[in-house]
Amino acid sequence: xxxxxxxxxxxxxxxxxxxxxxxxxxxxxxxxxxxxxxxxxxxxxxxxxxxxxxxxxxxxxxxxxxxxxxxxxxxxxxxxxxxxxxxxxxxxxxxxxxxxxxxxxxxxxxxxxxxxxxxxxxxxxxxxxxxxxxxxxxxxxxxxxxxxxxxx
Length: 152
What we know:
The chain has 152 residues and is mainly alpha-helical. The chain has helices at 13-33, 39-50, 56-63, 67-79, 101-122, 127-143; strands spanning 54-55, 83-88, 91-99.
């Protein structure tokens, strides 16, 4: 009886996607270091920039992470003076999140860093290929049950 050898690591698309994701994210993290913000914190700030006054639950659903992880991240952003928390006057148990003036000025600067990072990695392929890659990734995420709403 012959035993079939298991597939090689390099045969798996997920392996290559993880390699690319790590490379892109690590480069972006280096760009953000000088601004005192991590990649996950950037995501929170960028989402709040468009959705001012979001609740923790709303923001967690948008980003696709659990409330506990988001709560800890928000606490770090509050300590850095980039996010403020306010009790919702209509529901005293709900907390609303807002960007501070400092972070409202910082988000456009960080967005330019994100643009530069994307260009550095994905500028080597043409615009049609970039759009197709984005569409393929979004399709894979949604068809496999990804719950984040950032794609809307």
